[in-house]
Design brief:
The protein is an alpha/beta fold. It has a single domain, classed as Vaccinia Virus protein VP39 (Rossmann fold, 3-Layer(aba) Sandwich). The chain is built from 10 helices and 8 strands. Strands 1, 2, 3, 4, 5, 6, 7 and 8 form an 8-stranded mixed beta sheet that branches. Helix 1 crosses helix 2 and helix 3 packs parallel to helix 4. It binds S-adenosylmethionine. The site of S-adenosylmethionine (SAM) has 22 residues, from helix 1 and helix 3. Pfam families: Methyltransf_19 (PF04672). GO terms for molecular function: methyltransferase activity.
């Protein structure tokens, strides 16, 4: 049987339909380890929507959403188009089901495309025909790496690939990242989260790695964090209205850091 994939189990956490039996079985085990995993996924997704809304309202009209996953409620282009119907969006993911489903969703949506590519190969994603056709890399771009970088272990140096994307973009570009953490998280959620993360060793994404706040901040080196700086996903600009808005009794239970930065 095919191993669960991060894209499809996340779809299961969010109540989506693009997952296989192996993914649903993984989700059932994940809920035993981290009972509020579905909330963690929803807080993360809410951060993504708030980040895109923020960037679009600040005038960003082109987006590169890397590790975009399976289509779900409130995709990047849908949020961006609420503010600017002409915004262009390129999605990228290395998971085949995610790419096929995204292609299906986008087939009648002008100004959007999906690229199958690996975050660790920036030149392939930045140089893909769809990217070159839709994004003008001489103008500010909103880059999203939401719930992506924790799938890349330290020995694969995600910060090096990220620098390549950051370097390729002009001043005024934005970068939104969320990332799993147990930094500052109290027991029992801390141990539950580590146990949950460990279970990914039996998936197609075995390198799942929690990072602390210092490591998270390093991803933004040289860029200016927008208010409120580094927050948990559940509390990043939680005043922004959102269809799927829901409060966290304890923001740290979101176990993911979130931030958006601007290239000076
Ligand atoms: C948890 S999902 C996040 C989806 C979406 N960004 C969100 O936050 O709602 C993580 C996604 O990252 C993708 N991914 C993991 N490693 C990747 C890599 N090296 N290159 C591209 N995509 C990757 C997975 O396939 C999956 O779709």
């Amino acid at each position: 049987m095919e191993l669960p994939s991060a894209a499809r189990v996340y779809d299961a956490y969010l109540g989506g339909a693009h997952n296989f039996a192996a993914d649903r079985a993984f989700f059932a085990r994940a809920k035993e380890k981290l009972p509020h995993i579905a909330d963690v996924a929803r807080w993360n997704r809410t951060f993504l929507r708030r980040a895109v809304q923020t960037m679009a309202e600040e005038g960003i009209d082109q987006f590169l959403d890397i590790g975009s996953g399976l289509p779900t409620a409130g995709n990047t282009h849908e949020i961006a188009h609420r503010t600017n119907p002409d915004a262009r969006v390129v999605y990228a993911d290395n998971e085949p089901v995610a790419v096929v489903q995204t292609e299906e969703l986008l087939k009648d949506v002008p100004g959007t495309a999906v690229v199958r590519g690996d975050f660790l190969e920036p030149d392939a994603i930045l140089g893909a025909a769809a990217t070159r056709e839709l994004l003008d890399l001489t103008k500010p771009v909103g880059v999203l790496a939401v719930a992506l970088l924790h799938f890349i272990p330290r020995e694969q140096h995600p910060e090096a690939a990220l620098e390549r994307y950051k370097d390729a973009l002009p001043a005024g570009s934005r970068l939104a990242i969320s990332h799993a953490t147990v930094d500052g998280v109290a027991e029992p959620v801390r141990s539950q989260t580590l146990d949950f993360i460990d279970s990914y060793k039996d998936t197609q994404n075995p390198g799942f790695t929690a990072r602390d706040e210092l490591e998270f901040r390093r991803f933004f080196t040289g860029w200016e964090l927008l208010d409120p700086g580094v927050a948990f996903t559940s509390e990043w600009r939680s005043d922004l209205t959102d269809v799927d808005d829901f409060a966290a009794a304890n923001p740290k239970n979101a176990v993911c850091f979130a931030a958006v930065a601007r290239k000076p």
